[in-house]
Write a structure and sequence with these properties.
The structure is a single chain. The protein has three helices and 21 strands. It is mainly beta and about 400 residues long. Strands 3, 5, 6, 8, 9, 10 and 18 form a seven-stranded mixed sheet that branches. It starts with a strand and ends with a helix. Mean pLDDT is about 80; it is low at about 65-70, about 355-360 and about 370-390.
Length: about 400
């Protein structure tokens, strides 16, 4: 049985315009960003002389659109670009098209028109903060959207029935060349102790993929007269909302409370394994997640990796990770802590390149509606979106 290429499609309620796209994830490789491309299908009889436009937008949102603006809900368009696709301003035969666009155009006929957008190099990737289970409809996120609509002109009032939107994602993969493996050491002197405590911690590489265990090598040489009562290792996610407030959200997304102890004059060398996963953090508010399409699952947010010189203020939400190694030191007047941190990257591996032969596989047009997915129940929010944009 031959495999097939899925083509995402969505048609406006009045059938005047439809969007067809071969993919919904677009990769930022730092030195270059994939072009957003697709095909718009129009019905001239329904349009009755109206024009058709397509827009690519990047938006930062906080709170629901129906909430008051007084510090509760916030929306800012980071980027927006609009193109006219019908009547066509350029002959289709003169345009350089992708293989997928060519095949969609042949399938749909003369009333189909291609579109292209290029991302500027200073846009953030798709990312959002996880709301708590009780925060229905609330979200803080950087989102991307392709919207097609018909109207008399670009600035005219647009009818909901004549509009269709598809959420897309801007994503990054781990760089092919990994950096040096992080390592750190610290020597701590104590009052009433002639000799110090020495702590070393290291990772076996700088970049880890989502779902990979992180092995942390810890070496303790305790020549002091203090006792190490516990060794705690955690994976911390730091999400910084740089667009409007520079708020920091530091969350431990994996933790190993080992219970290991090192007596005065003793030593310990051990490798601890931690696995940061969204599955272990689904109920925690404020965890940063990779951008989510409504009907799909996602994962912990990938580390932010951007071109030098780009202003951080326009990047929306920056995400980084660190390993924290903490020693709990016992004493007569209570316990104290000795700790080190190891920054690292958590990202997706670069997927295998699509073989040229796959470009000739059968295309399958998939309606992008949540209710078409088996076992899914359309909620009120999604119903409103479909009413406006399907």
């Amino acid at each position: 049985m031959s495999s097939s290429n899925v083509i995402f499609k969505k048609i406006s309620k009045d059938k005047s315009v439809g969007v067809y796209m071969g993919k919904r994830d677009f990769v930022d490789r730092i030195d270059s960003i994939e072009v957003v491309d697709g095909v718009i299908l129009v019905d001239p009889e329904v349009l009755q002389g109206k024009k058709v436009f397509v827009t690519l937008s990047c938006t930062f949102r906080y709170g629901r659109d129906d909430m008051d603006v007084m510090g509760i809900a916030f929306r800012r368009d980071i980027f927006i670009s609009t193109r006219q696709v019908y009547p066509a301003l350029q002959d289709k035969e003169q345009m350089i098209l992708t293989k997928v666009q060519n095949r969609i155009l042949k399938k749909l006929g003369d009333n189909a028109y291609p579109f292209f957008f290029e991302f500027p190099d200073n846009l953030p990737c798709s990312v959002g903060l996880q709301p708590s289970p009780k925060d229905v409809g609330k979200h803080c996120a950087v989102e991307f959207e392709v919207k097609a609509f018909s109207a008399e002109n670009q600035d005219a009032k647009v009818r909901k029935r004549s509009t269709v939107t598809l959420a897309i994602r801007k994503v990054q993969y781990a760089p092919e060349q990994d950096g040096p493996a992080p390592s750190v050491s610290i020597t701590r002197d104590f009052v009433m102790s002639d000799k110090p405590l020495h702590l070393e911690a290291s990772l076996d590489k700088q970049t880890y993929y989502h779902g990979q265990p992180i092995n942390v090598r810890v070496k303790i040489n305790n020549t002091s007269n203090k006792n190490v009562r516990n060794v705690i290792i955690s994976v911390d996610q730091i999400a910084t909302v740089v667009l409007y407030s520079n708020d920091n959200y530091v969350k431990s997304v994996a933790i190993e409370d080992s219970g290991d102890s090192v007596d005065a004059g003793g030593s310990l060398e051990k490798v601890y394994s931690l696995l940061p996963l969204l599955a272990h953090n689904r109920e925690r508010r404020g965890i940063a997640l990779d951008g989510k399409l409504k009907h799909e699952d996602t994962n912990l947010a990938s580390s932010s990796y951007f071109k030098p010189g780009v202003l951080k203020e326009v990047l929306g939400i920056l995400v980084s990770y660190r390993i924290m190694v903490k020693l709990i030191i016992g004493g007569m007047l209570g316990s104290s802590e000795v700790g080190v941190e190891l920054p690292f990257q958590l990202m997706h591996p670069k997927p295998d390149a699509v073989k040229d032969s796959e470009a000739e596989e059968e295309m399958v047009f998939e309606e992008f509606k949540r209710t078409y997915l088996k076992g899914m129940v359309e909620d009120e929010e999604q119903a409103n979106v479909e009413e406006e944009a399907s």
